Amino acid sequence: MKNNNIEQRDNFGSRFGIIAAAAGSAIGLGNIWKFPYMTGLNGGAAFIIVYLVCIAFIGLTLMLSEFIIGRRAQKNAIGAFKKLAPNTPWFLTGWMGVIAAFVILSFYGVIAGWCMEYIVRAVMNSFAGMSPDEITSSFVDFIGRGGKPIFWQVAFMSLTGFIVVSGIKDGIEKYAKILMPLLVAIIIILDIRAITLPGAGAGLEFLFKPDFSKLTANGILMALGHAFFSLSLGMGTMITYGSYISKKENLGETALQVTIADTLIALLAGIAIFPAVFAFGIEPNAGPGLVFITLPNVFQQMPLGYLFSILFFILLTVAALTSSISILEVVVAYFVEDLKMNRKRATITATLAITLLGIPCSLSQGAVPLNIGGMSFLDAMSWLTDNLLLPLGGLLIVAFVGWVLGRKEVEEEVTAGGIKVSYIPLFMFLAKFVAPIAIALVFLNGVGII
Ligand code: TRP
Fold it and tell me: What is the pTM of this model?
């Protein structure tokens, strides 16, 4: 029986739903677009090893910290801090998260829109017969236009709002349960294609045979920064999702599973991309254009490339969508719980505001010269999140759990429902010392102090 006097908070309905939604948040453009190009720029396997170390020690610690805060408070990112540390400035951490959600989703929606355009291009077979220069200029020309990229950005943001408006169980969880298996199926098909190409070995070597001489200090910090972005950490996404996880679930195990899933998909994306890139003798270090310029070149030469190019851009869009809903939910949950809006109004308001902020991001790619500090507006938004908002947010979140919440409350939360764990001393050590110091280094580097 429902108690009608107590407002029922929407929750995830099943364990698979939790993993699908949280892994869906983590697995996104970060895995399939950004991780491969960063690996390409930083020399391959050595970068991946550093990334794995960052994920294991810092990413996992921060993910569990966010789950603990969210589930303990049963609140959105801002409300959670207000509840766990009343009458202190800690709620500002949540505020920064909500602001970060606006900033991230503004440019994320633009890039996801490009992915949708590329599904259409793939279906129309538009890459066929284009020279590499033509493929490059058609990309540069497209993102530099005024109307078309914005059209796709609006389309993508509408899809995101459409899912979020239906709530947790009937919106986010329901779609994640359909989209995530689809994503896994597509990436496996693409991997099989890539590793069976003649000459694929060089790409696998690039991914798995480390050459540490190619790794720079900056590369190491990029790896840590990307670990945050890829696992959706540092802005309260996992606080918000954690607040929808039932008290019966094992938070440590959930954090571990989500982290492993995210890492595996990033590696599988690398395996889908680099063997093909090397097999056709193309340079791996194209940077952000890797999936929009390098890959169409690859698909063009690949047997059945037509089919695989369609699948690839569907994969990117699906991955982006299960992430964008998690970012929007951070804002919507706050609007609903603390500003007392109804869900529909909250979703529409947040989606509109974020889409509007995305428009200058899109225009800055060539249509209008919008620059901040020598970067395009879009790059500036991305820089702001990677170097400032996420590291600072992550630092505050993990320090909050380590120093403010403290061992007793942590233990109580991760052992709720009679779960036995042995990792508390290690976790507390990582949360109090290792993670804050490592994150502080990224932060100081990002803002140019070291
Ligand atoms: N993790 C997603 C990706 O890899 C993006 C994302 C979703 C995100 N929620 C986030 C990034 C919160 C930072 C913070 O594409």
Answer: 0.94
